[in-house]
Write a sequence for this structure.
């Protein structure tokens, strides 16, 4: 025994077990390998390589600046349209999300097949990118705000329902048990014991999704689904970069302002 | 007992009352403004949808298998864009997050500046970044990588700084008391506490970036988005069905794998 | 009257919660169930309002077997049986008054309760209940602003508002300090005597059981091992129920402080 101990000391005990060290090293090199390959793949179409790209940055600044601020009044309406689209989509999604979130919360929906069904549906919904939804709806309803609102609604519904069902799953179940014990039916139990617990987070998450929708509605305009993105797309098509830069700056400002407001509301809530 | 009177509700302060009325009016005004301002041509939307329905919807559900090869390749490129972009972001976000965390750099001024930088980056939608980078490096996948990298840096930096702010500072104090210097504290007191969460968020960000990078092609930044634009302008809904299928499968697989890995890490 | 006839309960994972229980609880009695944790006290009590469902035997409440009740008459049963919990189970973000009014849920239609349209009688009943446990001044406070003892009194008021025939209390004082524990038990006892509400309380404190109970039922490993009037109970009886000698932490103490 003593002999073995001594030899251990002489070998110097490693800080981590050899197996962990080995695993971490392998994972590190695999990740690095995929990274190197990704970089190679994504750069293979580039004419001048990475160095040339950096040089181009200066060209970008020259092309985009100074922004043409004289078009501000002209894009005002489109920006307002984007906000209105986001408001409608967020409101509709917030209403539709309630039954879906309850049905996909494991602690409320004890009937397992129903829970699994709603969960799967929501997971599927969340895999579809907003752009694809917009393209399909534009194909279906023609160019305009309506397909945009529809795409935003469905896109945000997937996110919101998942986040809220997770909130529901983390509530304190004791009050629900008490309401059930005093003879409340399912709706009364939900209204009296669940809703008060979830309401602050619900509002906060709806605001969060509203922010996401503002950003996403920029994307939608690019495929003809209304709003500021439409204007941006036109300017880019005509290579009118100073105008495009103004649009970008307006979007930037609006996103910052809305994020600021919704942060303030959220702080007041919790 | 029947005639028992309830005590009056405690009076709310005048300020609170005014505030409640003000907020209610504001919300009502917002909705009036929205619904009056929005211009939906219902007649046309319904008419179009009736005439287009059979041309679009059934085809989405019968994907064009002949395009499977091209779609697969484009999807692979999307995954590469997301991978390279999120890894770059994960590395870039670390120093920025230390800058923005209040309990690290000491001064409140520094952390406020750090937070401002991060939220300024976040205010640019990924697609806008992609537009800028396409102009800079040309219409190729690398523009997408850069857009994802910068966009994710903003979000990851914020998440990381919140993790740093939530660590157990007692450990750090104990090490200070031991006589450890700043670098030693960083490696022995801080990094072990934050590594699992950092990794978990970075992997989660990869999930988000897969979704984000699948649309960048619309402005020429590579990946499957390019095919989405072609398919939609050619009204090739069978191909769109194939693209949709590819996205759903890849996103689901990656979500699933990432959830498992994250559960193992934390 | 509540009557357990050969009641047994096996949980889905195979553990036996209750074994062959035969107990009859008479109108107006104040019964305390004692036993170590895991002895089946909680399962026993929760069977009566069917928060858990026994798997064999029959359980009669007012002469009807409640084990084959379904949603409709289950609600009626629960309206008749009030329950008090160890963790008070109040909605923390709602105010005291709303929490107490929730006791009327079983008597109120879904739509009316969701729109908060309670009758004047219901409201004065709720207020009166709060008065009876001396906490009416906290009417409009949020539940999470109250101390543990105050919250438990609110939950007693909630049960009173329900106008139950039976009250079940599952470890009502386990989270409280000794003086508050005695206060809560005193209220329960007072309500039992004044309103003639049959009350069944789970406790694991021996001294409290002896002080407040009319009748004590001892449980061990899902079985009833003792059943008799509190006057017949001695420390020896408890040693038999617990299967070990009595320790300091089996006593709540503090009786003279309250």
């Amino acid at each position: 025994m003593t002999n073995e101990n001594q030899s251990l000391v002489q070998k110097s005990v490693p800080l981590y077990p050899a197996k962990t060290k080995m695993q971490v090293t392998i994972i590190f090199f695999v990740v690095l390998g995929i990274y190197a390959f990704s970089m190679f793949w994504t750069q293979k179409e580039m004419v001048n390589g990475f160095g040339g790209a950096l040089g181009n940055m200066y060209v970008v600044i020259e092309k985009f600046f100074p922004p043409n601020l004289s078009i501000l009044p002209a894009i005002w309406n489109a920006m307002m349209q984007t906000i209105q689209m986001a408001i409608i989509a967020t409101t509709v999604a917030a209403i539709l999300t309630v039954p879906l979130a309850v049905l996909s919360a494991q602690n409320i929906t004890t009937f397992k097949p129903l829970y699994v069904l709603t969960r799967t549906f929501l997971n599927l919904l969340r895999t579809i990118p907003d752009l694809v939804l917009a393209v399909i709806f534009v194909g279906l309803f023609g160019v305009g705000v309506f397909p945009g609102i529809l795409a935003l609604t469905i896109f945000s519904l997937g996110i919101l329902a998942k986040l809220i069902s997770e909130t529901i799953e983390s509530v304190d179940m004791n009050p629900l048990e008490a309401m059930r014990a005093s003879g409340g039916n399912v709706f009364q139990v939900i209204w009296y014991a669940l809703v008060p617990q979830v309401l602050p987070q619900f509002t906060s998450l709806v605001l969060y999704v509203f922010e996401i929708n503002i950003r996403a509605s920029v994307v939608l305009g690019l495929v003809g689904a209304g709003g500021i993105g439409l204007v941006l797309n036109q300017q880019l098509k005509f290579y009118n970069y100073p105008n495009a830069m103004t649009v970008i700056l307006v979007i930037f400002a609006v996103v910052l302002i809305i994020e600021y407001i919704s942060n303030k509301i959220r702080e007041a809530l919790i | 007992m029947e005639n028992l009177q309830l005590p009056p509700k405690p009076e709310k302060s005048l300020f609170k009352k005014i505030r409640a009325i003000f907020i209610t009016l504001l919300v009502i005004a917002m909705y009036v403004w929205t619904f009056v301002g929005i211009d939906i041509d219902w007649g046309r939307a319904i008419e179009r949808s009736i005439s287009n329905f059979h041309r679009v919807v059934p085809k989405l559900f019968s994907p064009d298998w002949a395009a499977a090869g091209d779609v697969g390749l484009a999807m692979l490129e999307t995954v590469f864009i997301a991978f390279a972009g999120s890894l770059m972001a994960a590395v870039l976000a670390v120093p920025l997050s230390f800058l923005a965390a209040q309990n690290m750099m000491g001064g409140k001024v520094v952390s406020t500046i750090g937070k401002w930088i991060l939220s300024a980056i976040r205010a640019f939608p990924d697609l806008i970044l992609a537009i800028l980078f396409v102009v800079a490096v040309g219409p190729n996948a690398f523009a997408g990588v850069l857009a994802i990298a910068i966009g994710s840096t903003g979000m990851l930096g914020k998440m990381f700084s919140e993790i740093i702010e939530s660590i157990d500072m007692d450990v750090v104090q104990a090490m200070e008391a031991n006589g450890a210097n700043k670098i030693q504290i960083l490696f022995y007191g801080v990094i072990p506490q934050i590594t699992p969460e950092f990794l978990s968020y970075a992997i989660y960000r990869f999930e988000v970036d897969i979704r984000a990078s699948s649309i960048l092609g619309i402005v020429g930044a590579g990946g499957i988005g390019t095919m989405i634009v072609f398919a939609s302008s050619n009204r090739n809904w069978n191909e769109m069905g194939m693209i949709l299928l590819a996205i759903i499968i890849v996103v689901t697989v990656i979500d699933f794998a990432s959830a498992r890995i994250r559960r193992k890490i934390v | 009257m509540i009557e357990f006839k050969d009641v047994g309960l096996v949980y889905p994972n195979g553990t036996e919660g209750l074994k062959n229980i035969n107990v009859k609880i008479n109108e107006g009695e104040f019964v305390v169930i004692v036993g170590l944790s895991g002895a089946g006290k909680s399962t026993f009590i929760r069977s009566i309002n069917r928060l858990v469902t026994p798997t064999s035997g029959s359980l009669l409440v007012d002469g009807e077997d409640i084990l084959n009740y379904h949603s409709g008459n289950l609600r009626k049963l629960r309206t008749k049986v009030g329950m008090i919990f160890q963790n008070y189970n109040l909605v923390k973000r709602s105010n005291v008054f709303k929490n107490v009014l929730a006791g009327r849920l079983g008597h109120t239609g879904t739509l009316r309760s969701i729109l908060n349209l309670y009758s004047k009688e219901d409201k004065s009943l709720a207020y009166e209940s709060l008065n009876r446990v001396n906490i009416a001044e906290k009417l409009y406070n949020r539940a999470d602003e109250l101390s543990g003892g105050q919250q438990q009194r609110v939950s007693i008021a909630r049960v009173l508002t329900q106008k139950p025939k039976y009250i079940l209390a599952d470890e009502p004082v386990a989270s409280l300090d000794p003086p508050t524990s005695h206060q809560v038990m005193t209220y329960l006892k007072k309500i039992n005597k004044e309103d003639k509400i049959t009350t069944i309380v789970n406790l694991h404190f021996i001294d409290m059981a002896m002080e407040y109970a009319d009748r004590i039922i001892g449980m061990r490993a899902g079985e009833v091992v003792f059943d008799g009037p509190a006057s017949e109970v001695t420390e020896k009886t408890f040693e038999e129920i617990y299967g070990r000698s009595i320790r300091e932490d089996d006593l709540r103490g503090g009786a003279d402080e309250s």
User: Anything to note?
Assistant: The first strand of chain C starts at residue 2 and ends at 10. The domain at 2-231 of chain C is CATH 3.40.50.300 (Rossmann fold).
